[in-house]
Amino acid sequence: MFELQLRDARELDLALDIIRRKFGFWRTLRALLATEMQRRRKARELAFLDNRTRRDIGLPEIEVEPHILWPGRWDSRL
To answer: Which of 5, 23, 42, 49 would be a feasible disulfide site paired with 27, CB 3.0-4.6 Å?
Structure first.
């Protein structure tokens, strides 16, 4: 298993090196950060759905309904 992890790590290093050489470090970093922000934004949007909507679109239900997962700027509890 350790050899498999090392092989995967080497393949990832090689792929990242090829991408970095082709597009440059800053463009690659900017694209990676943009992708991560987009993924987190989608997760936040789904966190506010109620259980009925979650069932309708095929997501698992949550036991406790979140009232405020991402407090607003004017929230006094911060």
So the answer is: 23
Listed residue (36, 58, 62, 35) closest to 48, CA to CA? 62
How is residue 8 written in tokens? 């995967």
Q: Give CA–CA dist 78/73, Å, rounded.
A: 9
Residue with tokens 């991408």, as numbered in its chain:
19
User: Pseudo-torsion of CA 23, 33, 46, 72, nearest 10°?
Assistant: -150
- Does this model's pTM top 0.70? My answer is no
* Residue 59 contacts residue 46 (beta carbons within 8 Å): yes
Angstrom CA distances, 21 to 7, 47, 49, 53, stand at 21, 38, 42, 45
